[in-house]
Amino acid sequence: MTSPASSSEVKYLIESSEGNTFDVSGAALRQSNTFNAMFLNIGADGPIPFTDYNEATLKKVFEYCEHSVNEENYSGPKHQDDLSKWDLNFFNEMDQKMFIDVINASNFLDIERLTSYCCERIARMLRGKNTQEMIKVITLPTAEELEAKQKVEEKKAAAAKKVAEKAAETAEKTETLEELPVQQLVQTTRNKLTRKYLSFSNE
Amino acid sequence: MTTAPRADPEFQRSSILYEFLRGKSEFKTYLSFCEVMGEDTMEYREFDYWFTRFSNGNFGLVDEENAVRSIRYFMDLPVEIIGRIVDFVTWKDVVSLRQVCHDLRSLILNMQFSYKDASIMIEKTSTTVTIGEHS
């Protein structure tokens, strides 16, 4: 349900990793440079898939975009002390996990204002702390977690390799199938021409 | 206090709730929590989950969402984002950050900082080095 027209009334459907869809206004979406580059001029048939991010994260990101629709154009980072009460509440509502998800989504969607405020917010969490305190704040994976993560990545790589091999195999098969009619066509044409030539020479 | 209640997750959460209601900042609360309950009782990420949950007005102590178990690591953030975060901290924090982990150290070593002002004052009995904000 989309239209290339850039009216603020236009609503776009966004699809999350869970496969759920929800509405976002065109005005809010236009704060995303990724959206502007990909869909603004050409429009989109059906929901826009941002399926690398879950619904809660995307809703949080677009909640911010909807709120800052009427704010002046972004002109560099704002000091945390200058943030409005709404902005402060918005950031305080998020735990670390949600924060990292929102930064990742905001970075992908290229929403400069949100990404910048999130970075400053994390920097504030680190400011004035010694190394030991920083280690506590920054979640570092334990040796077991690193091992588990590596295993998951290896599994993913193996699965991706399998998919790629299957795709290559299918492409090869398709190529052979596509080649067959062409070869047949060439052969048929050749036969026809030969017959015509023979009939001419007989005359 | 015996060790049994300290190991009970609901007891830990109710302690966080108690500290939260006292209105102290999150990290200060975490430090005093660790002091009483023990350093390894709870990781900061889990503490942060509960503290934020209470801040949002949800005072339930049952982990029905099981959300704490899906972990996000700071170091999984894109390199350019970590670079931007480092840009926002002071040079003193950068020095501490370099010692957090190997990856962060090599990332910071590859960054270039320029400072707006720096001064060294040498006196008879002391030397003072002042470094301004980096840009």
TrEMBL record, chain A:
Keywords per UniProt: Ubl conjugation pathway
Domain (SKP1 component dimerisation): residue spans on this chain: 113-159
Gene Ontology biological process terms in this record: ubiquitin-dependent protein catabolic process
Highest rank taxon of the organism: Eukaryota
Leader peptide range in chain numbering: none
All copies of domain SKP1 component POZ, residue ranges: 14-69
Family of this protein: Belongs to the SKP1 family.
Name of the protein: Skp1-related protein
Automatic annotation (TrEMBL), chain B:
Annotated Gene3D superfamilies: 1.10.10.1450
Domain of life: Eukaryota
SMART domains, A to Z: FBOX
Protein name, UniProt field: F-box domain-containing protein
InterPro entries: F-box-like_dom_sf, F-box_dom, Mos1_HTH
CDD domains the UniProt entry points to: F-box_CeFBXA-like (cd22150)
F-box domain location: 71-118
